[in-house]
Amino acid sequence: MVSRRRFINLGGQSLVALASSGLLVPKTASLSYAQNSAEKSQAPSTNVDVIIVGAGLSGLIAARTLRKAGKAVTVLEARTRVGGRMASTKTIEGGVIDFGGQWVGPTQTRFLALLDEFQIKRFDSHYEGKSVFIWNGKRTIANLAKDYDKSFLFFDPSQLPLLPSDLLAAKELNQKLMKIVAQVNREKPWLTPNAKALDSQTIQTWINQNSRSEIARFTIAWLTRQGGEGGFEPSEASLLHLAWKQAVSPQNEFPETWLIDGGAGQVAVRLAQELNDAIQLNAPVRWIEYGDKAVKVITKAGITYNAKSVIVAIPPPLRMGIEFSPPLPAQMSGLIQRGPMGSIIKAHAVYPNAFWRSQGLSGMAIGNLPLLEFTADSSPPSGKPGILTTFVSSNQAVSLGLLNADDRRQAIMRDFVKYWGPQAANPTNFYEANWPSEQWTRGAYTNFLTPGTWTSFGPAWREPVGPIFWAGTEVATRWPGYFDGAIRAGESAAQSALAL
User: Fold this and answer.
1) In whole angstroms, what is the distance from residue 419 CA to residue 138 CA?
2) Which of 85, 213, 315, 414 is least buried, going by the fewest C-beta atoms within 10 A?
3) Three-class secondary structure of residue 35 per DSSP
4) What are the tens digits of pLDDT across the range 249-263?
5) CA 478 to CA 489: how far, in whole Å?
6) What angle do CA 440, 233, 170 make, to 5 degrees?
7) Closest CA to 472 of 280, 312, 320, 232
């Protein structure tokens, strides 16, 4: 990420810079939630029914659900804006950039229902035309497959310059994974048949044991780094974790079907406008003291809030920044310590128009380039502006994050050019969001669990601790790591608080 005190030069903008300037909401919406940076209550304590820690999508949904049930709530947000990983800004030609999540798919019913309620339109992601596949430096133009289950990383395998033996190896390796996926206990992964054996080995170990084909191995590694899993290397997480993620948020349900007209960030703003004075910005929580039926929450500023219960709706690793009294149970602490966030740097290159479309290309690309293993067209239907989106993931993201802003941009643009040619070299604007460097997120898309964690500490995953309930997309049993999972987790936590 760019220095926290400066913009990227040459038309680029960073998430931090935009946050500080109040530009992370559409210009047509109220900016109060991005600009008001002080806790509004000056009283030494505030008494409510439920306190929500975190004003990301999950926390806002929890607060909204409780409000509708007649409960008094206070939402404490560490940032000077709402939305968490749901953040947008405008760019040239009236286009919109999403720094966090941006897509929605047909089985993500809770998020679709919220969009419909707010009358926010969506439009098809652009997959028309041929796509680009690069393997070991060889660039191929090919069609996407009509049937995902018969595809090779979404491509029609008959159009790729790969050996039949490699295609067969990739197919067989994927089938072996899917057999494991089919047996996963989605609600309680630690009860999956043969769970300890699956959880004790890394994904990489399993890949090495089951295939000698370099490209077959790449297809599974691509899932861990790019395919909605969480930005981690296959050597970092357990096979059980990958199988569970594929069971509850499968790629064959097309989670990247639609983009949101006006950007995803407006959803958080709309929810915040409903909650209004219940939200306290610039209010990081430092202390939670709890008994059987009461909690005391103290912010960094020393302001105390009292409630019957609290919903903690922040990424699990950030819970370690809060002192709990009494301390959290050992099983919960162990789970948090073994569930780091993935490493993702998201970047957009913006052009006056989507020039690739006039060449009969979709804007989607997959390959084993030094940095970029995936690109997508995030442009509006008109193709003005043209927006190419990419994700630098896991080890590549860590290495890239050590460079200065200009060098990061140049490295990303080199791979864009390899995919899309010389016209991609000089975008009008360039944006990046280095989520691991964000103080109140520390990674994306979600967290992942290291080997042995599910079977040793998994039962603590969603378990309340007295009057403390957990929300955030990471604790969803369906679509974790996506907006839909955030909504489901927020609703579930709210219902649990209501039943207390």
Assistant:
1) 10
2) 414
3) helix
4) 999 999 999 999 999
5) 9
6) 140
7) 312
